[in-house]
Amino acid sequence: MTSTTETRTNRAKGEELALQARQLGFQWAASxxxxxxxxxxxxxxxxxxxxxxxxxxxxxxxxxxxxxxxxASGSVSILGTELQRLGSGAxxxxxxxxxxxIFQQFNLVPYLSALANVTLPCRLSRTRHDNxxxxxxxxxxxxxxxxxxxxxxxxxxxxxxxxxxQQRIAAARALMGAPGIILADEPTSALDSDNRDRFLDLLLGxxxxxxxxxxxxxxxRSLSSHFHHQIHLGDES
Length: 237
Hints:
alpha/beta, Rossmann fold, 6-stranded mixed beta sheet, 5-stranded antiparallel beta sheet, 7 helices, 24% strand, globular, disordered N terminus
């Protein structure tokens, strides 16, 4: 696997990093080739655009950065914590406390309402609960308003909402409790161009307000200009 990296800013010596990955390798099965990924160093508050064709390893890289998968080689540090040094339970707790994830398939809880899905991180993490002002329900309502979810939809089960609305609810959930880093896997794939641009402006604007860094995966290279850093993953062929 090859990569190209472009940045609009240079990292100052000693600058505090949201994310650092070195010499990452991962293998899904012994019969499959090793996936190797470029080194990353993203300062806190800056954002990375990760682009590549289907099968290039974008989602696999996100799973390594979130601690959902453990690399075969190399290291991942998030907000100064080396994930590979944590046991599986400790990685899960760290992710709940410090990482907001927007999954490609949303992973919303189908029997919960839109509002309950958004406040879920605050029920799973005391850290994110305590970071939420003035309280989780009020903060969730404000996010839903900003993301244009009508108030009469807030108490509906998410399965009764459109795919685009579910995608925005997944984003609101990731932002709850001011996590230090947000990992977003194709979060605009179900949106038309107008809603896509509005969503991206809101996501990055809210992240900037909270001092969070965003790693944003998309096949749409036209979105890259919104980000401080850009990486393209591709096959060696």
